[in-house]
Amino acid sequence: MIGVFDSGFGGLTVLSALLRALPGYDYLYLADSARAPYGARSAEAVNEFTREGVEWLFEQGCPLVVLACNTASARALRNLQQLHLPARRPDRRILGVVRPSVEALAGIPVGQVAIPDHTPPSTAEGLVAVLGTPATIASDSYGIELRKLAPRLRLVQQACPLWVPLVEAGELDGAGVEFFLRKDLGAVLDAAGGHWPSRILLGCTHYPLLLPTLTRLAPPETEWLPQGGIVAERLADWLKRHPEEETRLGRGGRRRFATTDDPGWFAERGSRILDHSLNAERVRISR
Ligand code: DGL
User: Fold this and answer.
1) Residue 287, in any domain of the structure
2) Does the model's pTM come out above 0.85?
């Protein structure tokens, strides 16, 4: 199975793109809903929770885990890849969402090796933005990667602390929601000297659900980048380039959903994102 980890149900926006692009594989989705949201938690907590989630997925037999969660990718991926895997799981792989998203933000085509000095600005002004949870933005993970891959792009990063709670509460449009979206988009504009970035990356699993409202609040030429499709096309490319990993994946088209909290609540929220009903099981992952 391909393991897909998120703090909650929002990562189903990424899973649904994976299912569209790579439907033949087996998937096991784990939501740590009992401890979500991760976005305002400390780096230590996000590291510990993510390690427990990933270990649980490994124990279930996943050779590859995708961290659909930006906060987990930003805070925990490096530690997991550089310390945990070599010490405890040298035969497993973990991929995150930050690197593929930055490649897309920088306009680097799928499958092309990024050579920083020769990467031209992908937009006229070279001004791009990333929106994310407070933890993701505080980590500067997007800034660090973008400076490596496309140093000539100007990046504005904005934390949007209330967007996840709004989506969790099922509030996706209306005057109250618009107030908070305008507030954070206004901060982006201020930081960018009054110019709209030409590309805005939705660096959080929940934000694609706000896209219909967001597009109404920005000029039509703004290019919004939700991550699902980006992660899916770049995972497909990664699997092509790593046949030794690809052949370890099951291809029975199976789907399994696990959550650390109420499975009924998860299934109800999740079915709205995946557009079909689903069954979830409750699991314990903390040690
Ligand atoms: N999954 C998280 C992310 O993409 C959002 C929800 C949370 O804060 O846990 O950053």
Assistant:
1) no
2) yes
